Amino acid sequence: MSLNKGLQSGTRPLTDAMEEGSTEFRRLAIQFPSNLSVWTKLYAANQTMLLAMGHQRVISALVEICSNLLGCEELTILEIDHTTGKVQFLASEGLSSQQIDTIAQTARQFKSRIDPGSPHITSDEDGKPDSGLGQLGISAMVPLWKDAESSGALVLFQLLPQRSGFDAEDREVLQLLSTYAGPCLRSQNRG
Amino acid sequence: MNAKVLLVDDSSTALLMGETLFKEHTSYEVVTARDGEEGLQKALTEKPDLILLDVVMPKMDGFAACREMRKQECLKGVPIVMVTSRGEPTNVEKGYRSGCNAYLTKPINAHELLEVVHMFLTSDVKQSQATASAEGGEKR
Question: Which residues on chain A are in Cβ contact (under 8 Å) with B25?
Fold first, then answer.
């Protein structure tokens, strides 16, 4: 996403970029009605994060987006200390304590898979599953980045029973999350 | 007069998506509520032509809200569409038993949602026109 570089380098105010994004998504939904569904989802996700920042509720906004737009109610948001490898769970939803323990023990493996700005999808309707992460029950990992480096991830586990994997619309939403979720969390913490 | 759609959902994301869709891509008027209790109140005061109802909500869940709505004379004929992440067959069955007309599972595809809403509202308009026409015929 073109906004990413400016955000990563800190040269572009986050709220400006997100407000522009919302306006653009609405415009595209009107201009290209055949892709109405994806533009409307991107608008709703973008606007939910933007509004949540002002109310210090970005974490619950992310949970809401995953549940409503991606069909995933099992997830965790974690930070990884790159020096010590220590994992801090910011929030977990729908996971057993055993799953959380497993994630804490294997989080170091995640580092290579969480490049800033692009989601890592293991449960794709069209693609091949990632056996390593797939064995942990992970369907996607969305990087949370800080100062152009990954600082953690939004980890999505099993999708709702009515879903067989992520489709093209989901990938766009995941891409949006990988652009903004980290900066929104960081901005909220600073506020 | 434009048809009125009541959206009942505790999720800001779902409300944002629904409001944007109906306001920018249809002529329908949109009213929102954030839990089952508020949904029931708004259904009684706003008299919507169609209700989109989430299931998992605070205060009163969607199944209970749907049952309460069906007890009200003025809401008996209003189409209710459940829009929920609860896609298990037992929940679908529970939804229909509580009185809904259709059951959609999240994540919602905008085209599918618009299609279902148009279908109910169009048939509703046709039905009203047919009734009005029949009543007019009787009077004549």
Answer: 29-30, 33, 36
